[in-house]
Amino acid sequence: MNAESGGFFTSTTLFKTSLLTVALSAIYVYEPSRKHFIPAPASPPQEKKSVTAKPKAEKTIQVKKKKTIYLTFDDGPNAGTKKVMDILQQEDIPATLFLIGEHVYGSKMQKDIYDSLLLSRHIELANHSFTHACHNSYEAFYNNADTVTKDFQRCADSLHFSNSIVRTPGRNIWRTENVNVTDIKKSKEAGDSIRSKGFIALGWDVEWHFTKTQHLVQSDSLMINEIDSAFAKNLTKNKNALVLLAHDRSFLSPEDSGALHNLIKKLKQKGDYAFETVSSYPGTN
Description:
By secondary structure, the protein is an alpha/beta fold. The protein contains 10 helices and 10 strands. The strands form 3 sheets. Strands 1, 2, 3, 8, 9 and 10 form a 6-stranded parallel sheet that branches. Strand 8, helix 9 and strand 9 (241-247) form a beta-alpha-beta unit. Helix 2 runs parallel beside helix 10 and helix 7 (145-159) packs across helix 8.
């Protein structure tokens, strides 16, 4: 090989060596700076805010107030009274019987029925006068207020009722703490006299009528409609309280006593009605 080719080799080799040295120096300078790189600290984790659950509002349960029916039966004791007693016992509901003093002593049968009434836990007894308006002489009876009060007092003294509640024969007269009603104006003085002597006169809101042959006029279904309507239209003397007037002598036949039994069962099935005696009626205390 000539001298010229050898010189080329030397200068080329020298150039490469210098280039390599520069590169290594650059690497050496970069590495320390890379090794001392401190990353920015990470953000601390945020605490989770505790969420307090709002208490659920308690549901208010509204209990529907039942309407009260006061079953009352006038003119006993008589032949139909025993049927009424049996039905009340079977259905386990209370009622009030307004008794006529003369009827209790009218016969052995009536006296025996009266004794049974005294033992019944379903029946409350109240005063319907001793002579039933001097044997249905209504106009003459109510024209004399003193005669009226004496007749009720005689019945009270004879039968010793546990309350002072009376029902006027043939008249729908009310004299309670909050109701003062007289159906026939000529009887107003008699009604006032009754109250002045300490008696409480209780009339009725709905009546179950009967014929001259002692049979019912309205069916049990019709009576339920009348009761529902009286409550719905606020036709009772006290709201949610209805006094039903019936006469126990009209329930002697199987058909009529069956109607009474059906009436009570259907009213119970409705679930809207409760039954009480008249001594718990508003304004009779």
